[in-house]
Amino acid sequence: MKYKFLETIKILDGRIYHLPYHQLRVDNVFRAYKRDNTQQLKELLENVPSQGLFRCRVVYDVDGDFQYEYIPYKKRLINRLKIVYNNDLVYDKKYNDRKEIEDLLKQKGECDDILIVQNGLCTDTSIANVAFYDGKRWLTPKKPLLEGTTRARLLQEGFLHEADIELSSVKSFQKMALMNAMIDFDIIAQDNLEDIMC
Question: The CATH number of 5-72 is which of 3.30.470.10, 3.40.50.510, 3.40.50.720, 3.40.50.1110?
Answer without folding.
Answer: 3.30.470.10
